[in-house]
């Protein structure tokens, strides 16, 4: 079964890097050609009669088509042999259904920094509602069962509906920096990483993590979450490695699993250090695996930390209060 990763990527601006606090692991895909990322020699003209004249299809890499930074306003014709398509940094305004009909072997699709509007879905444009029209429309979803990574960050998405339901292989979803007021429905069961920071989410559904048992990383910083909006024991699930709830409106530390390793709660309104949120029982074999705990920027100080927290949090290398 071939692995299909169609990326709807936004080129990361400095502001994006600062609030996400992570580097783009796929920068090499669209990095400067002078750094050696540009596979094959483009000194040779387009190879094969099916290569559009406005693009380059290097003979040393015949399954790639480079159309980036050409001032294109419309989608070029895509030969069926292409697996890697680079269309970033253009002025393309639409992705018609016909443009991807022949692209049955496509593995990478790079279209960040174009001028696609609300119903022409691609990252770093102006998307008002995601229904997976065109590139990810419901009629094509059956052919994208192997999609593993989806970046839709820094847009204006307000509602995703149940558009993720058919993405059975999705492992990373990034919809940070949008206008979501609720968590996307029908999260794929194989999801490992979920990035929702910089939205307007104020509550979580009762079954938030019920189906996504493989989820390891949740980032929900800079939302509107309150204690009332988080159902009891929502995050007290095994398997979770990192949880970021910083810059919300929490007044209490939510209960978490003893297997959690990194917890970020800075810049909330927390008024009490509740050791029971980490350990219900403390002895030789029962303790938290937490390594990082950030509580700075709340309404507590180091004097509020119980003396017996050293037993519960014995593995913590960083505790900031």
TrEMBL record:
One of the record's GO cellular component terms: extracellular space
Gene3D superfamilies listed in its UniProt record: Ribonuclease Inhibitor (3.80.10.10)
Subcellular location: Secreted, Extracellular space, Extracellular matrix
Primary site of residence: secreted
Domain LRRNT: 50-84
One family name in Pfam for this protein: LRR_1
Domain of life according to the entry: Eukaryota
Signal peptide extent: 1-18
PROSITE patterns linked: LRR
Family: Belongs to the small leucine-rich proteoglycan (SLRP) family. SLRP class II subfamily.
Protein known as: Fibromodulin
Gene that this sequence comes from: FMOD
């Amino acid at each position: 079964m071939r692995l299909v990763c169609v990326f709807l990527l936004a080129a990361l601006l400095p502001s994006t890097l600062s609030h996400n606090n992570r580097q783009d692991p796929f920068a090499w895909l669209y990095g400067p050609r002078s750094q050696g990322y540009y596979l094959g020699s483009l000194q040779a003209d387009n190879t094969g009669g099916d290569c559009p004249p406005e693009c380059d299809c290097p003979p040393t890499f015949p399954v790639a088509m480079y159309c980036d930074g050409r001032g294109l306003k419309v989608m070029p014709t895509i030969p069926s042999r292409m697996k890697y398509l680079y269309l970033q940094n253009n002025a393309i305004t639409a992705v018609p259904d016909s443009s991807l009909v022949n692209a049955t072997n496509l593995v990478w699709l790079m279209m960040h920094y174009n001028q696609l509007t609300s119903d022409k879905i691609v990252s770093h444009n102006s998307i008002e509602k995601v229904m997976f029209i065109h590139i990810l429309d419901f009629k094509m979803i059956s052919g994208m069962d192997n999609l593993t990574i989806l970046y839709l960050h820094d847009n204006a998405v307000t509602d995703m509906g149940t558009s993720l339901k058919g993405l059975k292989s999705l492992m990373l979803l990034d919809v940070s920096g949008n206008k979501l007021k609720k968590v996307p429905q029908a999260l794929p069961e194989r999801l490992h990483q979920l990035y929702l920071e910089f939205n307007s989410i104020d509550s979580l559904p009762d079954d938030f993590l019920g189906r996504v048992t493989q989820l390891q990383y949740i980032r929900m910083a800079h939302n509107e979450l309150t204690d009332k909006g988080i159902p009891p024991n929502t995050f007290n699930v095994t398997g979770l490695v990192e949880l970021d709830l910083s810059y919300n409106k929490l007044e209490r530390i939510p209960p978490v699993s003893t297997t959690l390793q990194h917890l970020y709660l800075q810049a909330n309104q927390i008024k009490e250090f509740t050791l029971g949120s980490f350990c219900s029982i403390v002895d030789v074999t029962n303790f938290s695996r937490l390594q990082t705990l950030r509580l700075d920027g709340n309404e507590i100080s180091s004097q509020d930390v119980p003396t017996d927290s050293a037993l519960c949090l014995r593995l913590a290398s960083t505790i900031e209060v």
